[in-house]
Task: inverse folding
């Protein structure tokens, strides 16, 4: 404030020069003396006061006319500066008092100072927020030494909670002598934040391996902490439901490892949370649980193939499934029927195996990913409550399973599936009147959009795929149907037959609930393999068709018509996250211009809205920044195409927040390492920074300060000139 009155700071090593020639200055002084002489001739009371005030006012005018300049040459020395380092890391924001105390200390440090924030390097100025990471106190001190190389600082003040993630804290904790950074001034270390005492139960880390396989055990290993040699109960939850509890005895350092082994029964992203109970007066209750997201994928696809009779189609498909190392096949065909038992034959007189349909379609159904009904009529085998067992199939599909029905003289309407519960999940409508099958050979035609669907994309490009379908041989006829069911898509159609005014579907697919179904109305797909091999092209069309069909049927949640994906399963608190929504139609073609909306629900019940419109690729992206720790669930809905959901976990397990107790012991050791040039100030103590009174700095620049327009001159002139005029008028002067 004082510098402002004099147009800036004035160094005592400067000299006064005059902008007006000395002759003109002498003339101004003469005029001033003449004015004072005339003023002194007035008689009466108050004359002396008026004379003094007038002299002072005239002096400021003459001073301004003379244009005085304070000139400071280069190479001069000035007192050394004070450097203040403020910790701007996230650990400084865990308690409101830390940031408040740091700013208060900064305000109390007066004098000529340079302020820097450290956390991610060194930045000029005080901290704007507490978001820095990777706190390295040693690096910050080295940066000060480099920046002020060759200078001597009056004082260096370090304001921090002592949670150092560099090597300095670890080195000072060792028994060997540690070399601390050489500093150009005395160091005062100011601790902000209390050192938390007592027991702190915590889950420090979880190791998962990143992903897991469906129906395959995988480990979750947690590092837990607490009172040395105590016993902790550690619990594992998935999506909030208790899975397992184990007890662990901690070692002498208060640490222990717990290993949980779990077997996932569904694919997708799932939140696993490991927690320990709060101790009495737990130092930091917020670190007693740790949640991670594990993505579950398929290792092998488990397929149940049920065939009503042997055929070339059954043989080719069974060989394909057996030879695929990614498929775990269970196959039943040439089965005993109820009539075989009722005919009087003994079991050892029959060559056909018994069909364990009740166990398969009740107890074991959920262990399969795909069920194939290949020319299979259910009534001869499902002796008791056939509709009840078919209802199990419907539940299986709606909860995420896949069903394939292949044509033949025992399938679709010929297998009497019309009116059964299973018709409700098929992609075609049954109940055909009149001729139930057409035995005329035909070559199926790709439907609109069928060239892009993963089931019918049998070549690398769309053009090559269309050419491959055009050269495939005819099929031997097909089961008739009444067209597509609601929400289904036709991929192949008959070139001549129609149903409800549209080409009759030959291959159709449908998503229903969480599952998928496919209907192939012919039992002659084996010809695609046989004829291709005969022409020297191999059987790639047949293999690619069924491989694509299996991949689509057992699709993960990330391969559905509406998919929502986070850019990371586990994200740090406050880190920006991309939520990508992909929307495709029933034929798996990207849908442009679809408006979607959704919500991101945090563990505390707070919600963040996401919305957008898909681009030409059927994709929309929303950016969010989670502010709450724990598992978040994302739900996105498109009125026309459906809905999707996913999860991600927000964690605070970065180095800055894994530990929140201020480390006063380390800061005291750091100050002590500098001997008489180091001092430690704990919470609540007076700052009183160490000062080197001999510290100077060399100024390598010239500087001039005009003293003619100093604000203090205007103040003096106005004050004394006004008082002189007031005195004159008070005593009868003009």
Result:
């Amino acid at each position: 404030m004082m510098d402002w009155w004099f147009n800036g700071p004035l160094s005592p090593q400067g000299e006064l020069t005059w902008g007006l020639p000395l002759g003109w200055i002498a003339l101004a002084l003469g005029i001033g003396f003449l004015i004072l002489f005339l003023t002194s001739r007035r008689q009466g009371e108050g004359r002396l006061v008026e004379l003094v005030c007038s002299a002072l006012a005239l002096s400021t005018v003459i001073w301004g006319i003379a244009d005085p300049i304070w000139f400071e040459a280069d190479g001069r020395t000035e007192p050394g500066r004070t450097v203040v380092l403020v910790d701007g890391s996230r650990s400084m924001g865990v308690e409101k008092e830390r940031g408040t105390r740091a700013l208060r200390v900064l305000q109390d440090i007066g004098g000529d100072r340079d302020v820097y924030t450290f956390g991610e390097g060194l930045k000029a100025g005080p901290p704007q927020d507490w978001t820095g990471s990777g706190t390295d106190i040693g690096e910050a001190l080295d940066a000060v030494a480099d920046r002020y190389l060759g200078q001597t600082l009056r004082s260096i003040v370090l304001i921090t909670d002592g949670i150092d993630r560099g090597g300095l804290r670890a080195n000072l904790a060792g028994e060997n002598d540690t070399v601390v950074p050489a500093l150009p001034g005395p160091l005062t270390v100011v601790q902000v934040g209390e050192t938390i005492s007592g027991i702190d139960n915590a889950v420090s880390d979880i190791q998962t391996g990143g992903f897991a396989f469906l129906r395959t055990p995988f480990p979750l290993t947690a590092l837990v902490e607490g009172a040395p040699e105590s016993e902790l109960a550690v619990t594992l939850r998935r999506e909030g439901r208790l899975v397992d509890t184990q007890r662990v005895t901690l070692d002498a350092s208060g640490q222990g490892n717990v290993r949980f082994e779990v077997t996932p029964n569904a694919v997708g992203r799932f939140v696993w949370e490991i927690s320990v109970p709060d101790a009495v007066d737990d130092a930091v209750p917020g670190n007693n649980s740790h949640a991670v997201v594990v993505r579950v994928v398929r290792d092998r696809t488990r397929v149940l193939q049920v065939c009503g009779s042997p055929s070339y189609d059954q043989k080719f498909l069974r060989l394909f499934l057996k030879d695929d190392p990614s498929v775990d096949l269970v196959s039943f065909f040439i089965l005993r029927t109820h009539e075989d038992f009722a005919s009087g034959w003994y079991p050892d007189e029959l060559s056909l195996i018994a069909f364990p349909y009740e166990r398969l379609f009740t107890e074991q159904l959920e262990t399969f990913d795909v069920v194939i009904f290949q020319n299979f009529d259910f009534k001869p085998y499902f002796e008791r409550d056939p509709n009840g067992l078919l209802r199990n199939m419907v539940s299986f599909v709606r909860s995420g399973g896949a069903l394939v029905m292949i044509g033949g003289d025992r399938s679709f309407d010929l297998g009497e599936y019309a009116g059964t519960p299973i018709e409700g999940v098929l992609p075609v409508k049954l109940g055909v009147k009149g001729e139930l099958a057409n035995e005329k050979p035909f070559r199926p035609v790709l439907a609109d959009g069928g060239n892009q669907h993963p089931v019918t994309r049998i070549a690398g490009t769309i053009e090559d795929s269309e050419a491959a379908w055009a050269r495939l041989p005819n099929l031997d006829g097909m089961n008739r149907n009444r067209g597509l069911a609601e929400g289904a898509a036709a991929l192949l159609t008959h070139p001549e037959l129609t149903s409800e005014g549209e080409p009759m579907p030959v291959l159709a697919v449908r998503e229903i609930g969480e599952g998928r179904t496919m209907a192939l109305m012919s039992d002659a797909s084996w010809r695609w393999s046989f004829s291709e091999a005969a022409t020297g092209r191999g059987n790639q069309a047949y293999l690619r068709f069924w491989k694509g069909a299996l991949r689509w049927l057992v699709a993960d949640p990330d391969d559905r018509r509406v998919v929502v994906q986070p850019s990371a399963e586990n994200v740090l608190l406050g880190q920006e996250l991309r939520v990508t929504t992909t929307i495709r139609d029933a034929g798996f073609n990207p849908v442009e211009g679809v408006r979607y909306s959704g919500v991101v629900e945090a563990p505390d019940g707070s919600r963040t809205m996401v919305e957008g419109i898909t681009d030409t690729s059927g994709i929309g992206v929303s950016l969010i920044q989670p502010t709450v720790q724990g598992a978040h669930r994302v739900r996105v809905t498109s009125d026309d195409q459906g809905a999707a959901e996913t999860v991600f976990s927000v964690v605070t397990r970065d180095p800055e927040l894994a530990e929140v107790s201020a480390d006063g012991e380390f800061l005291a050791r750091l100050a002590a390492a500098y001997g008489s040039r180091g001092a430690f100030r704990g919470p609540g103590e007076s700052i009183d920074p160490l000062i080197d009174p001999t510290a100077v700095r060399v100024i390598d620049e010239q500087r001039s300060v005009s003293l003619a327009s100093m604000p203090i001159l205007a103040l003096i002139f106005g004050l004394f000139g006004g008082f002189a005029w007031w005195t004159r008028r008070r005593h009868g002067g003009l």
About this structure: The chain has a mean pLDDT of 81. The CA atoms of residues 152 and 677 lie 13 Å apart.
